[in-house]
Amino acid sequence: MIELNVNGRQVAVDVDPDTPLIYVLRNDLALNGPKLGCARGQCGACTVHLDGAAVRACQTPVKAAAGQAIVTLEGLGSPAKPHPLQAAFIAEQALQCGYCTNGMIMQAAALLKAKPQPTEADVRAGLNANLCRCGCQPRVVRAVLKAAGKGA
Amino acid sequence: MRHLTEHNALSRRGFGLGLLGMGGGLVIGFRMGADAQQPAAAGPQLPAMIRANPALNSWVRITPDGAVTVFTGRVEIGQGTLTAMRQIAAEELDVAPERITVVSGDTARTPDEGVTSGSFAIKLGGSALAHACADARATLVKAVAEAWKVAPATLKVEDGFIIGTGQRVNYGEAAGLVSLVRPVDANAKRKPASEQRIVGTSYPRTDIPAKVFGDRVFIHDMRPQGMLFGAIARPPAYAARVLSVDLAPIKAMPGVVEVVRDGSFLGVIAKREEQARAAAERLATSAKWDNGPALFAGKNVFEHLLEAPHEVKTIHELKAAATQPPALTHKRTYRRAFQAHASIGASCALAQWQGDTVTVWSHTQGPFPLRVHLAKALRTPEANVRVIHEQGSGCYGHNGADDVALDAALLARAVPGRPVRVHWAHEEEMAWEPWGSAMIVELEGSMDADGRLTDWNHDVWSFPHSSRPGPSGGMDGCNLRSAWYLADPLPPSKATDGGLPNGASARNAVPIYTAANQRVTTHYHQVMPIRTSALRTLGGFFNAVSAEMFLDELATMAGRDPVSVRLANIKDDRLAAVLNRAVAMSGWMPAPVTAGKVLAPEMRGFGVGLSRYKNQDCYVAVVAEVAVDTRSGAVKVRRLWSATDTGRAVSPDGVINQIEGGMVQATSWTLIEAGRFDAGIMRAVDYVDYPIIDFLDTPVIESVLIDRLDQPSVGAGEGSQAPAGAAIANAIFAATGRRVTELPFTRERVRAALQA
Ligand code: FES
Ligand code: FES
Q: Tens digits of per-residue pLDDT, B732-753?
């Protein structure tokens, strides 16, 4: 059994400690936010926060996440209390299919924490390793800058 | 199990945030059959989709409590289609959009509208739904008018209530007065654009809130009780067949529930997803395979395109009686590599057998055609197969969505009653999805002394642009890949090239310019050693990019600038309007391009691309500004400006989202994307070997929409790629005075062209 703290909840999962965290979050804990993309650390779709840092859940063995606060998109905000980035992504309609959206928001949330008033260049550099095939990069940049304006 | 395609009366969360003002996309469509191509006859003509699905209640239903449900065979593929459908239904019914339930893409419940592709969803599916809803509204109003003994014109409708003479009654009660179970009335009248209040506004997309809060949205998120995970053991080459395999050690691996072998189709079912993947990988590497013959007999794909047997057809020809003798003539050949859909989320499906029947949840673009091919491959009557659409990652055409549905159904058959989800690995998608065809375009043309085109010959060499399940991919055989590997295999369908006006290989090969003599010839390869199929725009992207490059070369030879030469050779005012608008936005002062100029370390230039998608849909002009590092050959697209005319835009913001997304995707296609393969299979299977554009390389984009209230709505999802690619190509040409003729314009290729 591995003890995890996910979105403020203590849970125990019975899995091989080397299992990539993404499978545990999605399949054992039924979370939908983090997505399985490339499974090679190349796309960012699986991004979650470990103690506030954005990490790729496909490259993180579950044992490495034990003892840290794991936050997923579900834990970032809710319809009643959206994170400024979630509100900004809706306001800017900053997605098409939305498969990359989890990674964009989670990576940007970590970026805004480190740098609350980023320039456009900061946002582009900060999100550069997150891929979007629908071509929504311009809208994502706008949404992140909008969220920063509101103070994330 | 809940069906996500039922978008029940909306949660109002998107609006609760006070974030109105943005909206849904459009786009997508139907593969036209002969029926859909009929010219409009005199008198009222029913939309093609209604002729195929004539019952009014197959489009709209109203229950006694006043609840309104509309049904569409179109599906959401991340372009906001269902939001646009909701807007259209709300407009014609006069019901608040959020009160309407939209049911989409379920073979047991919705109209059969074929495939959601080719930017036809709004043009055909939207017009059909609008017509049916207009009929329903008029019928209910008339019934109430008769009951109240007043003229229908004295009544109005507000959010599903019919109001007049001091009384009001809701649609549910009105529906009790008259039957809506009858064929759609050809005489029903849609609202004129001047009276539209919801269509034409950027209504916020209804699928977005769930996607930013991490709700269950995608098929990848479905986890019904008792679900198992499947994975396929892929052959080492497309032509490979199993010689021998020992299933016992795989069956003993942790979590493995079942190992399935049917000929060379090998798969694993396990309790956990990572266990299924690990077991499938071991199964693939432990099996002994015969790899089969080398792809393209070991030749380069372009040699193969020119030399291997293929069908040559002149499909368009115009001949003038007499023309001025040309002042100059020019000929050039352009080439494009195989390119991939490269979805961020790989294809996924869920299947469950109950006795003889199977239900398959799929992000296919065509639930009905998929059902036909699943039934063939599973050797069961169609009635035993139900396909329900669920959203997937953006697909941009025919990726692995349909194929994985058969994989899931084949595996699930080994565990009756248990749902099995198969989610391909990204590398598996890249190696096994159908690719966009490598192509060669050769152009030959002439211009007279006044800068007018006299001759324009366009030859295109291509593999198929549809190997979909369904009519466009061929009627015989089976177009679900694993069916080809079964012990008793089914052959693939015989792929045919789509004819004009839509065209497939020749999409957008007919010039938008008024050359007096024109000829378009296709060199079509029905046999595809690397399977190819629809990648957004089919042949349209490369045909139009080539034509636009060629025109700029002719203009340069004639000493004319790229804009005036276009204006001198178009007749359509809507083309001229988007061109002038994009140029004005960019601030560019067009001047003739100087060939072979002296190169500084960095050279900058502007270029333009102009297109009318399929020669009949949206008009888009793009201007690009690029900077070329002449030592490394690296191209930086600094800015793109676009002007678009999609007729009446159902959702302006949705159109812009599609247009800008297409420009970003096209920048990626144009500069960096190329499939690399060895003797047996595609090798460019991850984002290192097949990179796609990132944030730092995404240009700054500005776009405008020229809304035409008086013109029918056409799709926008495929309108901007070609003009964006062409603008970039022409800006490189203008910056350096040198032409790179093979896509993508990698730094090696650009450097080589600069040093030549
Ligand atoms: S899925 Fe983890 S980075 Fe792509
Ligand atoms: S919105 Fe589709 S991948 Fe980004």
A: 999 999 999 999 999 999 999 9
Which residue's alpha carbon is nearest to atom 3 within ligand 2?
A: A132
Q: Which residues of B touch A43 (CB under 8 A)?
A: 344, 426, 687
Across the interface, of B80, B215, B396, the residue whose CB is closest to A32 is B215
Whether the CB-CB separation of B282 and B276 falls below 8 Å is answered with: no
φ, ψ for residue B85 (rounded to 5)?
Answer: -65, -40
pTM of the model: 0.92
Helical packing angle, B367-378 and B401-412, nearest 10°: 40
The CA-based dihedral angle spanning residues B734, B737, B742, B743, taken in that order and rounded to the nearest 10 degrees: -30
DSSP H or E segment with residue B85:
helix B81-93
pLDDT in tens, B115-150: 776 666 667 778 889 999 999 999 999 999 999 999
Contact at 8 Å (CB) between A66 and A55? Answer: no
Which structure tokens are listed for B751? 């450097």
Residue contact A96–B694, C-beta within 8 A: no
Q: B505-560: per-residue pLDDT in tens?
A: 999 999 999 999 999 999 999 999 999 999 999 999 999 999 999 999 999 999 99
Q: Map out the domains of chain A with their CATH numbers.
A: 2-74 (3.10.20.30), 84-149 (1.10.150.120)
Q: How many CB pairs under 8 A join A and B?
A: 187
Protein residue with its CA nearest to atom 4 in ligand 2: A132
Does the beta-carbon distance from B211 to A95 stay under 8 Å? Answer: yes
| Sheet with B453-462, edge to edge strand ranges | B311-318, B517-524, B453-462, B439-447, B328-336, B742-743
Q: What are the pLDDT digits (tens) for B13-43?
A: 322 222 222 322 222 222 223 333 333 344 5
Q: How many CB atoms lie within 10 A of CB B304?
A: 20
Cis peptide bond prior to B562, omega within 30° of 0: no
Of A43, A89, A137, the CB nearest to B344: A43
3-state secondary structure of B350: strand
DSSP B727: H
Domains present along chain B, CATH in parentheses: 15-212 (3.30.365.10), 222-291+341-432 (3.30.365.10), 439-465+504-755 (3.30.365.10)
